[in-house]
Amino acid sequence: MFVPKRNDIILYAISILLCAASFVVLNHNIEILLFPHKAAMELLYNYSFVFVDDVGYEQANGLFTIARNCSGVKLFISLFLIMVFGFLHKYTGTKRKIAMVVKYYFMAMFIAFAVTVVRIAASIPFCSWERFHLIHNAMSLGIYFSVCLSLYFVMERRVRV
Description:
By secondary structure, the chain is mainly alpha-helical. It has helices at residues 6-28, 30-45, 73-87, 94-123, 132-158, and strands spanning 49-52, 56-59, 65-67. The protein has one domain. Strand 1 (49-52) and strand 2 form a beta hairpin. Helix 1 runs parallel beside helix 4 (94-123) and helix 3 runs antiparallel to helix 4 (94-123). The protein is elongated.
């Protein structure tokens, strides 16, 4: 059974604080937060967008909105915490663990962005459907849950220290 040492507990606490700070900072300015998502949708679908304060990027014809909840911040935090709490204890040495926390942070950010872009892109064909929100939410839950499980199982097989 794994019993965390003092340094491990401090790293876990710092990771939680990093998540809280990231959540606040990333949600502070949604125009900047959602810009990469908007740019990706412009490239994929050739749509133009208008930024609406406290709403997000609205597609010019009003077909859909890329809103704050589309940013993937919660997925990013979930992925980061899965990696930290699931696999950090497998490494030895405080410096290596700190390096892994940094690596996990950027890995989680990249994965969350990529998955969120795929989720938004996959939802756009359903925008005109009457039950779009139901489809979109169900698709989101399925994708996010699958990504979290997949990350855990891939990391479980790959992290051998």
